Backbone:
């Protein structure tokens, strides 16, 4: 039945006698193998092995099915070869920076994203701050490349989840407000570069710019360590509809005005590729609208929900 499935998946099935792990033929999502005391481990992020004192061995390959039982590990590759299309957003945002993905350190890729961003879009500023936590490393890369000091200008509450997936706009606005708190000693009277990994709807970005100004920032220059998100992800991420995405209908200056920043710039797609090893092996559907595993454009994320009577 796997041959009939279209889309992205990294899955683990476990019975009393066997573990089966497999990835889709494009390798859109990560899945890794590790060892601990002679036993095999499977996880979507390699940091799980570190936390259990295990050892990362290798990635489960795209289209590979791994069988683990009392006899050991057996691998099969029953699918026809497909072009590798790993989700580049795993490097930008989804995966923890202490992980190894597709043979590369997420931390190092994220730092290079910030460095590329500083080369493409410098700013006259006094301090670089991150939108924590996912942008911390990219902001560090921007600061290192630009020579502008890096400071912790926003403190994040870890009791608030991801605001961009909240369906209710009132909850998104409230969540964005209580998720972060500015450090006035860092911001007052200074020209600030704030680095974020992405802008989805623009809700959080606008709230952050307001916070920085209220905390005394003289100028706020917003820099994004990815390209504009213009299309939804249909490969496992609960993303807004295309109509809700800020960059689907607005140009960069219109987004800048809507979030209230003095300037706004995004990293280019080519800059993203350079940071991730200059390979043309990534899914960039949310930036380009080209879905490697196919996708009917009429899909809705509510397609599997039970209709209300």
Residues:
């Amino acid at each position: 039945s796997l041959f009939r499935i279209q889309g992205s998946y990294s899955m683990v099935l476990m019975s009393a006698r066997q573990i089966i792990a497999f990835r889709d033929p494009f390798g859109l999502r990560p899945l890794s193998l590790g060892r601990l005391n002679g036993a095999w481990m499977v996880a979507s992020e390699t940091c799980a092995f570190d936390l259990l004192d295990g050892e990362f061995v290798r990635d489960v390959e795209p289209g590979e099915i791994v069988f683990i039982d009392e006899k050991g590990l057996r691998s099969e590759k029953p699918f026809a070869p497909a072009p590798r299309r790993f989700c580049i957003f795993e490097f930008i945002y989804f995966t923890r920076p202490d992980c190894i993905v597709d043979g590369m350190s997420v931390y190092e890729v994220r730092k290079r994203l910030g460095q590329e961003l500083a080369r493409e879009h410098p700013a006259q500023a006094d301090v670089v701050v991150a939108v924590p936590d996912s942008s911390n490393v990219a902001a560090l890369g921007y600061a290192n490349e630009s020579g502008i000091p890096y400071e912790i200008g926003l403190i994040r509450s870890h009791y608030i989840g991801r605001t961009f997936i909240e369906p209710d706009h009132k909850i998104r606005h409230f969540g964005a407000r209580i998720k972060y708190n500015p450090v006035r000693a860092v911001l007052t009277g200074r020209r600030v570069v704030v680095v974020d990994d992405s802008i989805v709807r623009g809700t959080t970005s606008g709230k952050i710019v307001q916070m920085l100004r209220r905390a005394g920032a003289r100028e706020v220059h917003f820099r994004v360590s990815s390209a504009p998100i213009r299309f939804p992800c249909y490969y496992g991420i609960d993303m807004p509809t295309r109509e809700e995405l800020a960059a689907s209908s607005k140009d960069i200056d219109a987004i800048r005005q809507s979030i209230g920043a003095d300037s706004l710039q995004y990293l280019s797609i080519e800059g993203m590729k350079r940071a991730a090893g200059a390979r043309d092996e990534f899914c960039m559907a949310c930036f380009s609208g080209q879905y490697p595993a196919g996708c009917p454009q009429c899909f809705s994320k509510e397609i599997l929900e039970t209709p209300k009577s």
User: Anything to note?
Assistant: The chain has a mean pLDDT of 92. The radius of gyration is 21 Å. Residues 89-288 form a domain with the Rossmann fold fold (CATH 3.40.50.2020).
